[in-house]
Amino acid sequence: xxxxxxxxxxxxxxxxxxxxxxxxxxxxxxxxxxxxxxxxxxxxxxxxxxxxxxxxxxxxxxxxxxxxxxxxxxxxxxxxxxxxxxxxxxxxxxxxxxxxxxxxxxxxxxxxxxxxxxxxxxxxxxxxxxxxxxxxxxxxxx
Length: 142
What we know:
alpha+beta, TATA-Binding Protein, six-stranded antiparallel beta sheet, 8 strands, 14% helix
């Protein structure tokens, strides 16, 4: 019997910034709202189920307009029973948060976002992450 393999190409058309920060998620979201003049809101946690490996529960905050999306996501799962690595992106476990920016309108200039992030007390380090080199980039599709 002939088997057919389904190949799916995902769209990774977004900017990803990794953050190292001592701030709690709600405090970081509030600070980003003030610095960037946006309205990040806490949304339902993102649940990622892995076959036979457990589940990640990722805290996320989102700001969405008609043509852009700005999301703050925590790298470490808040619940991680029965899973080897509790990180959304295990190869980048040194980062506490990620900012994911999908922008078709030019509303967010990633360079300006980085400059404003430098002014936030509690954000120790930030870096633009090249998503095409990530092994677990599929975890960022939700």
